């Protein structure tokens, strides 16, 4: 069974600085998708970035980028030029196809605090 | 933000009551999901649906039931609420490679 591990329950970053959130996963599949989701306090969870496993190039979305190391099964999220609005819970997720449908397996989350 | 709605947003109810948490989406997505999430914790899949008249239990055992009579509607029902059901319930739908989440229902059972 696939698992997703986020070993950092909480991280802090100074405004305008860069922070990296860690995520590792375990799978025997060769083709899959990985995601980072952001859940602001009392607000809707939204997709930050996604990575297709067969693509070697790391995904980038504005200030957000990933470091995808397929062999190491590592999928970290880098946030550059951190802003106060980046404060949220961040969840790493793995998408698997099982029992005829896609299922998403989430990590335990990392709470990011942005210091002014 | 995606067009996926959940009502009520907050619910406080007594033990033994029957409740239905509503979830609807206007995007025409076939695949829909219910997750249970305790505060600050990971999401656990409790139900999912491929499409109309298709529902399956998720990985986390739940005493709730779901139905999918219409594509846009995926309600979750608890026949007899208990304090152990206190949690946040998130509804989601999926299209291609993206999962869209509703705002969640925070349920407290006294």
What's the structural blueprint in terms of helices and strands?
The complex is a heterodimer of chains A (116) and B (110).
Chain A: E1 3-5, E2 10-14, E3 19-21, E4 24-26, E5 33-39, E6 46-52, E7 60-61, E8 64-69, E9 74-79, E10 88-98, E11 101-106, E12 110-115
Parallel strand pairs in A: 2-12
Antiparallel strand pairs in A: 1-4, 3-9, 5-6, 5-10, 7-8, 8-9, 10-11, 10-12
Chain B: E1 4-7, E2 10-13, E3 19-25, E4 31-37, E5 43-51, E6 54-57, E7 65-66, E8 76-78, E9 87-95, E10 98-101, E11 105-109
Number of contiguous helices of chain A: 0
Assess the beta-strand content of chain A as a share of residues.
over 45%
- Basic shape of chain A: globular
Q: What name goes with the CATH superfamily of chain A?
A: Immunoglobulins
End-to-end distance of chain A, in Å?
A: 41 Å
Biggest interchain interface, per-side counts? A-B, 25 and 24 residues
Main β sheet profile of chain B: 7 strands, mixed
Major sheet attributes of chain A = 6 strands, mixed
- What is the subunit organization of this protein? heterodimer
Stretches with pLDDT under 50, minimum 5 residues of chain A: none
Domain count of chain B, please report it.
Answer: 1
CATH architecture level-2 label of chain B:
Sandwich
Total helical elements of chain B: 0
CATH topology of chain A: Immunoglobulin-like
Given this structure, which CATH class of chain A is correct? Answer: Mainly Beta
Write the CATH fold name of chain B.
Immunoglobulin-like
Short description:
The complex is a heterodimer of chains A (116) and B (110). Chain A has strands at residues 3-5, 10-14, 19-21, 24-26, 33-39, 46-52, 60-61, 64-69, 74-79, 88-98, 101-106, 110-115. Chain A has 116 residues and is an all-beta fold.
């Amino acid at each position: 069974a696939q698992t997703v591990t986020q070993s950092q329950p909480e991280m802090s970053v100074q405004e305008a600085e860069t922070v990296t959130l860690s995520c590792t996963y375990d799978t025997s599949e060769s083709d899959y998708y990985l995601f980072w989701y952001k859940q602001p306090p009392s607000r809707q969870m939204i997709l930050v970035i996604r990575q297709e496993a067969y693509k070697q190039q790391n995904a980038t979305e504005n200030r957000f980028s990933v470091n995808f190391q397929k062999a190491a099964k590592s999928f970290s999220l880098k946030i550059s030029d951190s802003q106060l609005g980046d404060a949220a819970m961040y969840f790493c997720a793995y998408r698997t196809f099982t029992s005829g449908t896609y299922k998403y397996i989430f990590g335990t989350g990392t709470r990011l605090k942005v210091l002014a | 933000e995606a067009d996926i709605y959940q009502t009520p947003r907050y619910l406080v109810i007594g033990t033994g009551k029957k409740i239905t948490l509503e979830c609807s989406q206007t995007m025409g997505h076939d695949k829909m999901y219910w997750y249970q999430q305790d505060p600050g914790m990971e999401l656990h899949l409790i139900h999912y649906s491929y499409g109309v008249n298709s529902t399956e239990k998720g990985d986390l055992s739940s005493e709730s039931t779901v139905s999918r009579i219409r594509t846009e509607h995926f309600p979750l029902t608890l026949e007899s609420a208990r304090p152990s059901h206190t949690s946040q319930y998130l509804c989601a739908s999926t299209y291609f490679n993206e999962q869209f989440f509703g705002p969640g229902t925070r349920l407290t059972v006294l």
